[in-house]
Amino acid sequence: MNSAPHEPTRRIAVIGGGISGLAAAHRLVELQPAANVTLFEASHRLGGVLETIRRDGYLIERSADMFTTKDPWALDLCRRVGLADQLLNTNEAFRRAFVVHRGKLVPVPEGFTLMSPAKMLPVLKTPLLSWRGKARLAWERFVPRRDEADESLHDFAVRRLGREVYDRLVQPLIGGIYTADPTKLSMQAAMPEFVAMEKEFGNLTRGVREKAVKTNREGTGARYGMFVGLREGMGSLVDAIARRLPEGCVQLNSPIQSIRRAENHWQLTLDGESERRDFDALILAAPAPHAAALLQEVDSRLADELATIQYASAAVPMLGYRRDQITHPLDGFGFVVPIVERRQILSGSFTSIKFPGRAPDGSVLFRVFIGGACQEELVGLPDDELYEIAQRELAELLGVRGEPQVRELVRWNHAMPQYHLGHLDRVAKIEQIASDLPAFALAGNAYRGVGIPFCVRSGELAAEHVSAGGG
Ligand SMILES: Cc1cc2nc3c(=O)[nH]c(=O)nc-3n(C[C@H](O)[C@H](O)[C@H](O)COP(=O)(O)OP(=O)(O)OC[C@H]3O[C@@H](n4cnc5c(N)ncnc54)[C@H](O)[C@@H]3O)c2cc1C
């Protein structure tokens, strides 16, 4: 809606320049070109956890390297900011993942999605499961449906599929995505499609098969055909959005220190400044603990609810080797490690196999994930020890020899929100309290999805809410 000539320009602040805040600012500019939008980012650069770096011919993603197209919002945003021709499919030749089993890499059985098999034969043949485990999985269709209010990933998967399938497949495949403690991870919040499947079809065996027939799905594990990356990395999405924002909109090195609600507007104070800045509307797209601290004075109930959302940390060593240093054929996209294997890493990704061209010819780029909610203590180890763990694990699992050509390390401290049991109820309460605040919305990965598409959607919905005069 454009302002009428006599109306003052609407001033809207967005706090947080990760993908959620960027999507919010971009949508505001689309909806209200005449508004004065300011995006405050605490650090020296935009993108939050998203960052792409280049070193010695390697293209290295420091966090996300792809997103799903099943939920369309990120794909749609890429198209709107002119990146349609930059979308990159995953390498069709090797669309599969491995699971570590007794120290060896074994492929996830073909057709096994995150929870259940679309085909039974590959499961019957896999060395990942004993006959007892396979029989228990085949029995899944007879396990009675149960209407739980919410259930942990552990309880749901053990109840429906049996302990062995949980330990050997479900925990590593899903735990790897959420870096979560599976005894606390909410099924309703993290894997709602499987909860819905049990409700609709009575069991997952039938549900997964019917869905697979409908969508003609291929691949295993993460269903790689539904994911895309960007040719120049996720940093190019951040840059493309930033280029579309009006001059002066982005304020880097600008941590917001306090928020106050004045009579009919919002007042923000930047760290180190005494002067307050006034805004007519506000989108808060900072992580939940930061949002909680900022909102304490505005609404302590809201702040207290936000403060209950917990976060996990991870360290990601990224290592580039010559191909002739590696004995494994690398005929997949990477591997996940079950907790029962008692190793020091969560997973490893063959990044330049998944997206060819991300390492120089004759070289390979790996990303190794360490920590998460179940091994958080490892994240604080010194850099050298983290590299040592990664190199030792790659040597044992893939036969990698010698020193890497390139190495990089990133620690993501408290960067991954944990969707614990009851998360959706908590979010509903947060949204309800937030909706009572005038011209205000929250956005970010803490609420209704951690993946990039959900962050984009949360930012865009926040923009639509405040543009419609919401609150
Ligand atoms: C290692 C890793 C791998 C991942 N892999 C994938 C993947 O493959 N696919 C996928 O879809 N998703 C993936 N994700 C998840 C996804 O990348 C994130 O959920 C998403 O990027 C988070 O965006 P955000 O804007 O909500 O938060 P953030 O990126 O955390 O941004 C929040 C921003 O707010 C700023 N801020 C905080 N406080 C203030 C303040 N007071 N004032 C101003 N600014 C402030 C911060 O500096 C930061 O820039 C991954 C995440 C990680 C960590």
What does this structure look like?
This protein is α/β, with parallel strands linked by helices. It has three domains: 11-49 and 233-309 and 420-467, 3-Layer(bba) Sandwich (FAD/NAD(P)-binding domain); 66-72 and 83-93 and 311-417, Alpha-Beta Complex (Polyamine Oxidase, Chain A, domain 2), CATH 3.90.660; 111-218, protoporphyrinogen ix oxidase, domain 3 (Orthogonal Bundle), CATH 1.10.3110.10. Helices cover 34% and strands 21% of the residues. The chain has 16 helices and 20 strands. Strand 3 (52-55) and strand 4 form a beta hairpin. The longest helix has 16 residues, at 163-178. The model has no long low-confidence stretch (mean pLDDT 93). The structure holds flavin-adenine dinucleotide.
How would the blueprint of this fold be written?
Blueprint: E1 11-15, H1 19-31, E2 36-40, E3 52-55, E4 58-61, E5 67-68, H2 73-80, E6 87-89, E7 98-101, E8 104-107, H3 121-125, H4 131-138, H5 153-161, H6 163-178, H7 187-190, H8 192-201, H9 204-215, E9 227-230, H10 235-244, E10 250-251, E11 256-261, E12 266-270, E13 276-279, E14 281-284, H11 288-295, H12 300-307, E15 311-322, E16 334-336, E17 347-350, H13 351-354, E18 363-371, H14 383-398, E19 406-417, H15 423-435, E20 440-442, H16 452-467
Parallel strand pairs: 1-2, 1-14, 2-10, 7-16, 14-20
Antiparallel strand pairs: 3-4, 5-9, 6-9, 7-8, 11-12, 12-13, 15-18, 15-19, 16-17, 17-18
Helix pairs in contact: 1-10, 1-16, 2-16, 5-6, 8-9, 11-12, 12-15
Bound molecules: flavin-adenine dinucleotide (FAD).
